[in-house]
Amino acid sequence: MDGGAVGLRVIAGAVVSESVAVTVGPRSHYSPRRRAFLVMLPLIFASGQWRQPDRTTTPLTNVRTFAKLYGYVRFFHPSDEASSIDWDRFAILGVGRVKDAPSPELLQERLVELFRPIAPTVEIYRDGASPAAPWRPQDTTRMKPVAWQHLGVRLDWSKTSPYRSLRINRSVVVPAEGPGFGTIVQSVDATALVGKRVRLRAQVRLAPGGRGGSGHLWLRVDRANNQPGFFDNMNDRPITTEAWQGFDVMGTVDAGARIVVFGAFLAGVGTMWVDDIELAVEVAPGTWSPVPIANPGFEVADTLVGWSARSPGYEFAVTTERPAEGRRALRIAALPDTLSGRLFDARPAPGESIDRALGGGLRARIPLTLWSDSGRTLPRVAPDTLARLMSALETVRSAVVDPDDERTRLAAALIAWNVFEHFYPYFDVVKVDWEPQLDSALAGALAARDGAAFLHTLNRLVARLQDGHGRVWHPRYSPDGVLPIRMEWIEGQAMVTASADSLVRRGDAVVAIDGTPIQTLLRQAEDEISGSPQWKRWRATTECLARAGAARRSRSRSSVAAVGSASLPSADRGTLFRHRMSQRSPCWRPVSCMSISAARRGRRFDRSSTRSQAPEELCSTSVGTRPATILSSRTCSAHPTHRVGWESRASSIQTTSAPQGSSWRGGVCSPRRPTSPVGSCSSRMAGPSVTPSP
Q: At residue 468, what are phi and psi to the nearest 5 degrees?
């Protein structure tokens, strides 16, 4: 299951987006797994002996129980109330509520309190007990059944994907056709700003109750010859606030910059207001001077003067509705459309339900079909009950984008596990015991302490699927540049097969990075890579340099003295190396020092095979022109190896050859500029699926 196209992009909300982007391989046919009616046996311990549940609980047991119920209700219980909430916030709220429940009785009580406002017909009961009789309306003559249908799974409701998740006899509002974001654009000449820090500031708010949309400011530096410069679109910190609040984007204008381009955009659905935009330059430490821009507060006219706004599927209007400053503000709104109907003929029968063991000594019966009368699913929930839950969900709004919050990490782990549990189509091919992976993921999330460590937990979770399309990525923690070399595993060694730097020659073998043997680094990397053994080794070989650089991300940024070897200038986001010595700044710091074996010098290796080539046959076309100037070099006394010290910002390091999602620019492989919000989870899932996995 290596390679292949990505077929489905799933927005799993800000929690998963804050933590995970996953691509999963295609499948030609998928039959729905009809395990929904199997009644699971009570919990069996590893000894194989039956045992009564303990009278005490643990935090992981409690969260695991909540996780199982969360997946069943979110994806298969069709109530209108369940479809109206933000499920990312609900996961965080639920984790916080149940984690410290001291006994099964209190755990059951808290689960009932959590789910009753959105799923009043779900019964949560103790192992060995009998649930209450199912609720049914007396007369269903004029009623319509409501049930979920999943063709694969689709969580952001885009019309462009062939995969869908819809409820029978219900419609859903989706964005009209378009790029998925609505943006305004303006630019200024960069000549007077080169080498200086600039700041984009604006007041932003979003419409209350919106789900799936986020606001962003963005700032970009365009250099000569289409070279990328600084770029930030708040991809790792999207705006979701409903009250006016100020936000900043800051960066340094690169050498050779032509223009500074900036603006604001709404990603996804909903409505966003922007006001009081300011571009400023730092003229002294901590002192900022405004840069003249057109119509910064949208006060010039009732139309959008001075700004470019051409985003199909979005509406741009200057409005007097609650501006942050002055008389006017700009409103950006996604144009609505609807999806409705049936995805396929199969559907749960009226009154159909499933009964599942949750762990922690609890079980649940979950109706898969509900009756609807006068436009609402039955039975109706008391308005004040749902209102209290909505108010509680507002209290965790900020936690959705905070991976340092323990609740957020646990919530992200259980959401990711549930998506695969119920919709991953390869479990009949990949023989993996997926149930224990939930325990491992939750334990890893609990131990991680921060987002950078949690990224490793999610990578290990996806790696257990053995699917070469699966990977986890986050813009804040994942490397976003490349070194000017290419490595492959050839004849039992990590060989340099292409190089744009004279100190690292094609045919050299990398034996260690920062003193750690390359074999050790490969084993560590392969534990977090999903796919076949061959695919794992290929990716580990190409990515181990990036992993070594990213490990230093938490160290303080300070000015670098001579590394004592080859020093290459550092980079801003999107570019690994700068071209001139004059670009040196306090943000430079050493990243890695490779020990290069010289024993194989004189032999060259073709990229596609291990056949020998003449030394003069170079692979320059695969890496392009030299991306940086060597500042200094020396040969270590420990012959026959010499050390090469790479100098760069750790957040911009990646080691791969033109990876998917990247483009070659001037011999440097740099990521394409992001245009969508964080929280995307891409999957290739086939399907119809109408019942959950047990």
A: -65, -10
Strands (E), 90-196: 123-126, 144-151, 164-167, 172-175, 181-189
**Neighbouring C-beta atoms of residue 246, cutoff 10 Å:** 11
Is residue 90 helix, strand or coil?
helix
Give the end-to-end CA distance of the chain in Å, rounded to a whole number.
25
pLDDT for res 210: 63
Contacts of 368 (CB under 8 A, 6+ apart): 36, 76, 77, 78, 147, 148, 348, 352, 353, 354, 690, 691
* 372 touches 145 (CB < 8 A): yes
The Cα–Cα gap between 572 and 652 comes to 7
* Contact predicate 418/24, CB 8 Å: no
Q: Give the position of tokens 């920062």.
A: 514
Q: Tens digit of pLDDT for each residue in 451-499?
A: 989 999 999 999 999 999 888 888 777 665 556 778 889 888 888 888 8
Domains of the chain: 8-39+54-152+346-474 (no CATH), 181-337 (2.60.120), 485-671 (no CATH)
CB-neighbour burial class of residue 421 (10 A; exposed 0-12, middle 13-18, buried 19+):
buried
Long-range own/partner contacts, residues 402-408 (CB < 8 A, 24 or more apart): 402/18, 403/18, 403/19, 403/450, 403/451, 403/454, 404/449, 404/450, 404/451, 405/92, 406/445, 406/446, 407/92, 407/95, 407/96, 407/99, 408/15, 408/18, 408/92
The DSSP code for 428 is: T
pLDDT digits (tens, 9 = 90+) for 581-610: 222 222 222 223 333 333 333 333 333 333
Instruction: Read off the DSSP letter of residue 77.
Output: -
Segment among 62-76, 508-522, 526-540 with least mean pLDDT: 508-522
